[in-house]
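haha ok so turns out i had the wrong file open the whole time. this is the CORRECT one, sorry everyone. sequence first:
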Amino acid sequence: MNRPTFSRSSNRRIDPARRRGGALKPDGSPNDNDRVETGPTDLAFDEWDSLGLACPDLAAMREYRLERIKAELARRDLAGVLLFDPLNIRYATDTSNMQVWITHNHARACFVTAAGYIILWEFHSGAHLSGYLPLVRELRTGAGFFYFFSGDNVDAHAGAFAAALDDILREHAGRNRRIAVDKIEIAGLQALEGAGIEIHDGQEVMELARLIKGPDEIRAMRCSLASTEIALGLMQEASMPGITENDIWSVLHAENIRRGGEWIECRLVSTGPRTNPWFQECGPRVVAEGDMLAVDTDLVGPYGICADISRSWIIGDRAPTREQKRLYRIAHEHIMTNMSLLGPGLTLHEITQRSHRLPEEFRDQRYGVMMHGVGLCDEYPCVWYPEDVEANGYPLTLEPGMVLCVEAYVGAVGGSEGIKLEDQVLITDSSYENLTNYPFEASMLSA
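then structure:
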């Protein structure tokens, strides 16, 4: 099959069973075969080494993140931030425990004081999952007061949690009763307010803390992207006529897990007529020779870092049609032109004003945003299309250390197919760096 050559595939020859020597892994974590924390596998470390990628210093990354949170709290004169969102807890502590389950069962919580004292309420019998981290100063239980867990005891459990937090504030914040909260059950919010605690928006605090990535976060992101691109290459090789969309998507999922990745947020793999309109998730459709395949990885890889890449390719050996090439070239021009605008000092509104305009036939089915932030997941900010900026836009100036995903969906209403493309881009001191190395389809871009 005439697949584009992807140099990262060559490192699959590395023996994943080879064990590294020494007490520490390249990222500074313990080299313990029975350790309780998640993390990259030896396969991932070997592949990164072959690519010349530096691993993050996890201790330094954690310290950087805590300082970012403290700065946002100080800016607002808040006594602390109370976190229930597992991604915010991950950012504050770098702990992970049933991340997807916890998104809809808020059984964990974390409180970060303005001085950086971290208290983690772990799920039942889960203290061992976080006890190794020096930044977590106290481990408790009792943050679960959702109905499935508490039933008719919701108010009592929420009240006990609020009383505990009240004691913490008196010990660590003196008279300051102002805290930020990201997400909380209604009973918990009412209990905190009943205790005389003033509530502010914790999601704003955390999104702004997460906005500027530190050097070790960028190293972690490069590693996560590299693993994702290797997995994506294997997925593309497996994209054969006669198998299902689910068969193809399962390769991406499995190869992510093999390297210590964590989960995939969406099932955005579609083929043939299911590529238009976008957002049809993969299913049992059997793919055929000449079908277009479009994928958006939305993948949470090693270190919990999101690798958000979109690509489209032809199933089998058939040459692309003239229409497939036209759609692909428009999508490619769109993201490349918009990417070329990026750099520090540029505002979101300026990007929108200067951006590449999709031909009118594709505007009704344009992607939701032109660009969005990315870190542990899709994050603040969003860059809106001209049609949407008046209702949804907000001011922000790009700074070094921000990472944006630049994307496009090109498919006409009623069209037979669509194209999805996306790259992940770092704002540097003077310009930008495209962190994505996965190739575009030469056959689509050739004359």
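The first strand starts at residue 80 and ends at 83.
again sry for the mixup
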